[in-house]
Design a protein that fits this description.
This protein has 407 residues and is of the alpha+beta class. 20% of the residues lie in helices and 14% in strands. The radius of gyration is 36 Å and the shape is elongated.
Length: 407
């Protein structure tokens, strides 16, 4: 890689990621959009530019030698302009900065070199914002405070907050992290002379997010996309079988396990393959609060220890369509549990199965017939009979019947 680095490189040609400098010719400067058009850039595509400096006259060192692996380089740098004319700059000659270069320096450098040193680091400074209806305004916004932008509808509030400050923050942030990623960083022009003191920002617009529990600040602001990208880029995996850090080739030498490469989707809480198996990506775990179900453990469950099941004694003497009460009686009969005793004296095994289920163990001893419309509750049954096909005189027929899939 190093032979394409320009004037000098700090690393050898066989080592990756060279840090280098080169000489370029600036053709044009777009101060509004912060772009410059150059000739003579000999780095690779997507190379990060760390700094641009004017090329002033420098002292010439006659005893400088270049390594053999670049001995074929010429003694000067050539630039091919848009008219296909060649212009040369001899690197071994002292020269003064010409008029065009002086203009270029004035375009890129601040009018006052000390101006940046006087910037208050506790402020965001917006200079000459003119997007939409903004009238070339300048403003200072304190950091680490809540700043409220107010005004009548259409006065420019969103133009300043979203289209200028937030948009410019995203552009600067994505310039740092997204040059080689698939995240869209083609943002609109902010139409502002300069904004200093910006920090990475997120924006939450004034809109109804709906009732979807998977809509979060991270998904609405897209900061979740950047976090997943960050984790996939710098994250280190540990093999769950041998506790070895998974190397770049995704093969663990100790146990032979092979892993797929890390991608942002691995860290998505909406991906069924990678979401938390407990909360299913919602960030909340559903648990039973026994104290809310059993409000009077001194009573027996037949005499109203729980408001959830009510008075089971009346149900046992005169059953109805409440299948939940029937399940309690069936479980007690199957486990030979005496429901006449206070609830607190019932066996812990019975209480566990009462609250958390029998773990697919079939409970015998009672026949339960219920009327139900909720599909989720119907699926918990064993046998289903569907009546229809319509109501009133058009009903009264058995449309279908049969065992559910788990039988």
């Amino acid at each position: 890689m190093a032979p394409r680095c320009g004037v000098f490189a700090t690393r050898s040609p066989v080592r990756p990621n060279p840090l280098a400098s080169t000489v370029i010719k600036v053709k044009s400067v777009d101060k509004v959009n912060h772009f410059i058009e150059v000739c003579g850039f000999d780095g690779f595509e997507d190379t990060n530019i760390l700094q641009i400096m004017p090329y002033n006259a420098v002292a010439v060192f006659d005893d400088v030698k270049v390594p053999d692996w670049v001995s074929h380089w010429t003694g000067y740098k050539t630039f091919l302009d848009s008219s296909r004319k060649i212009q040369s700059t001899n690197r071994n000659s002292n020269r003064n900065i010409n008029k065009n270069q002086q203009i270029f320096i004035q375009e890129l450098e601040p009018e006052n070199n000390l101006e940046l040193e006087n910037i208050n680091s506790n402020e965001i400074i917006v200079e000459n914002a003119s997007i939409h209806n903004l009238k070339d305004i300048s403003v200072k916004i304190p950091k680490d405070k809540i700043t409220v932008i107010t005004g009548v509808s259409g006065s420019g509030k969103s133009s300043l907050a979203f289209d200028t400050i937030y948009n410019e923050s995203r552009k600067q942030f994505m310039d740092l992290i997204a040059s080689n990623t698939h995240i869209d960083n083609d943002y609109n022009d902010s139409k502002v002379k300069r904004i200093t003191g910006l920090q990475p920002a997120i924006a939450i617009e004034q809109r109804n997010l709906g009732m979807n529990p998977r809509s979060t600040v991270g998904s609405v602001s897209r900061i979740g996309d950047y976090l997943r990208l960050l984790y996939a880029t710098i994250g280190e995996r540990v093999c769950p079988y041998c506790n070895e850090t998974v190397p770049k080739n995704n093969v663990c030498s100790k146990c032979g396990s092979i892993f797929f490469p890390l991608t942002p989707s691995v860290f998505s809480y909406n991906n069924p393959d990678y979401m938390c198996p407990v909360c299913k990506g919602l960030g909340e775990e559903m648990k039973i609060d026994v104290n809310l179900i059993i409000d009077n453990p001194e009573k027996s469950i037949l005499n109203g220890a729980s408001l959830w099941w009510g008075n089971l004694r009346k149900f046992r003497d005169k059953p109805n369509a409440n299948w939940m009460k029937g399940e309690v009686l069936a479980l007690a009969d199957d486990m030979k549990e005496d429901l006449e005793v206070p609830f607190k004296n019932l066996s812990e095994d019975f209480k566990k199965q009462l609250f958390y289920g029998t773990d697919s163990r079939e409970v015998s001893g009672a026949t339960v017939i219920v009327i139900e419309h909720n599909p989720m509750l119907i699926k918990r049954g064993d046998y289903v009979i569907e009546m229809g096909p319509e109501g009133g005189d058009l009903g009264g027929y058995i449309i279908r019947e049969g065992w559910l899939g788990h039988k």
